[in-house]
Write a structure and sequence with these properties.
Layout lengths: L21 H21 L75 E3 L10 E3 H16 L5 E4 L4 H15 L1 H7 L13 E5 L14 H9 L5 E3 L6 H4 L7 E4 L2 H10 L4 H4 L9
Antiparallel strand pairs: 1-2, 3-4, 4-6, 5-6
Helix pairs in contact: 3-4
This protein binds zinc ion.
The site of zinc ion has 5 residues, from strand 4.
């Protein structure tokens, strides 16, 4: 069952009862980690290190190459990046694609698009009643297990939000903060990554839930350093409101797959708009 606006639900006590899919997850996890290791080892980018950088990501500069193709290509085919990365391997328009780019100038089509192929996020705390697309949910479980192995835990705030959920949330923001602030903090219905099933918000302590100080919590630091290793990016980086249209959201993780997250990490390009050479989307 899908659940809508469940901000106030309590944690489900599900530790230790990962259902009969435990063996399947172990297999999936092993395969994924194996693939990840291979991908990292074989990655052709000269600047990729098999060890993650110990620092988070504030190092990217606005001088990062936005679109490295030197001149208009005579052929309509994709222009490969210097690393040979194929930027057209997946659609950036189709909401069922893990590379879909949704922003204030790229609404979902249809606006009330409802994602499918969803799985709940057990055993991540609060995850039993939150949903993402299955590929993203599987990756989140691996990310959570890795964080936990490092002594870090986090809780799911919200993952998928339907068109109807988002309408309610956006209106609440407008009522409480006014439209200017609402538009920097919450997407209008039909314009939210959460509606695709590829994104989620997490928190560590209650006091830093959906607050900048999340970035200073153990979970905030951990995901800033390691989320890319599991196919996630921090979709709304600091000081990127003029590009993404949204304020810094260190708690908002977007699944794009480990190939793309690794490439973005290696090149230091933090936003999907810059990576794919799309126009900035500061406003609707
Ligand atoms: Zn979010």
């Amino acid at each position: 069952m899908r659940v809508g606006t469940l901000w106030d639900k309590h944690l489900a006590a599900f530790w230790g009862r990962i259902p009969s899919t435990r063996a399947a997850w172990a297999t999936v996890g092993a395969a994924f980690v194996g693939g990840l290791v291979l991908a990292v080892l074989l990655w052709p980018a000269p600047s990729v290190s098999p060890n993650p950088s110990p620092s988070p990501s504030p190092s990217s500069s606005p001088t990062a190459p936005l679109n490295p193709s030197p001149s208009p290509s005579p052929s309509p085919s994709a222009s490969p990046s210097p690393t040979g990365f194929d930027k057209e391997a997946f659609s950036i328009d189709d909401p069922t694609s893990k590379w879909v780019v949704v922003n204030k100038s790229r609404p979902l089509d249809p606006l009330d698009y409802a994602s499918s192929d969803m799985s709940d996020l057990s055993p991540v705390p609060n995850g039993s009643w939150q949903y993402m697309r299955t590929e993203a949910a599987d990756a989140l479980r691996l990310l959570y297990a890795a964080a936990k192995a490092d002594g870090v835990t986090f809780t799911v705030a919200t993952a998928e939000r339907t068109y109807g959920d988002q309408r309610v949330i956006y209106r609440r923001w407008v009522d409480e903060k006014g439209q200017w602030w609402a538009d920097r903090s919450s997407a209008r219905a039909g314009y939210s990554e959460h509606q695709t099933g590829w994104a989620l918000d997490i928190y560590d302590t209650d006091e830093c839930r959906l607050q900048y100080c999340f970035s200073r919590t153990p979970a905030g630091k951990w995901v800033a350093a390691h989320a890319w290793e599991y196919g996630f990016i921090l979709r709304y980086p600091e000081d990127s409101v003029d590009i993404t249209g949204f304020i810094w959201e260190p708690w908002h993780l977007r699944y794009v797959g480990v190939e793309l997250s690794s490439e973005m990490h290696a090149t230091g390009i933090e936003t999907l708009e810059e990576f794919f050479g799309l126009p900035a989307a500061p406003t609707y």
